[in-house]
Amino acid sequence: MKPTIITVLTLALAVLFGSCNDQSDSPIYGNWRLEKYNCIATSSYGLTQVDKNENYVLQLDNTGVFYCTTDCNNISGNFETDKTTLAFSNISLTEKAIEGIISCDDMLLERSIEANLRCIKSYELKDTSTMYLMDADNHILIVLTK
Questions:
Q1: Would the CA dihedral through 17, 21, 27, 32 be positive or negative?
Q2: Which segments does the entry list as coiled coil (predicted)?
Q3: Cβ atoms within 10 Å, residue 77
Q4: What are phi and psi for residue 18, nearest 5 degrees?
């Protein structure tokens, strides 16, 4: 799906007005490396380990905008947080493989991350270097490290 003008405008407005609710001291802001994720192809909440050679990064900035880079596409949108709650919205995924721009090796991983982000309701930090992203039932869907 190509980013729509509404998505682009929403991201631009979030950047412009995000500083009104500045929580720049939050430990969740910054770059996080994807370590494990819940694969949408399985029916359980068992986590899949990301290959150590891959560098998938989720960036959370203090304007409420997030970016996730993978080996092929990018996922972006908005997020809201308050103490331990976390919710992602306006999520868009570039589709370079579908558009024939490049060949993507692991679209399942990217689709899993996109689907998981839509379900995130809270987070938990461990020693400010590991973050667990969880759904409404406190199932861990994504594990990230600084």
A1: negative
A2: none
A3: 22
A4: -60, -30
d(CA 110, CA 96) in angstroms, rounded, equals 12
Domain of residue 111: give its range. Answer: 5-15+27-145
User: How many CA atoms does the CB half-sphere of 132 hold within 13 Å?
Assistant: 11
Q: Using one digit for the tens of pLDDT, what is the confidence trace for 96-142?
A: 655 454 456 667 888 899 999 999 999 999 988 999 999 999 999 99
Query: Residue 33: CB partners within 8 Å, gap ≥ 6?
Result: 55, 56, 57, 144, 145, 146
Alpha-carbon distance values, 118 to 4, 121, 131 (Å): 18, 9, 17
Q: What is the pTM of this model?
A: 0.78
Residue 130 is assigned to a structural domain of this protein? yes
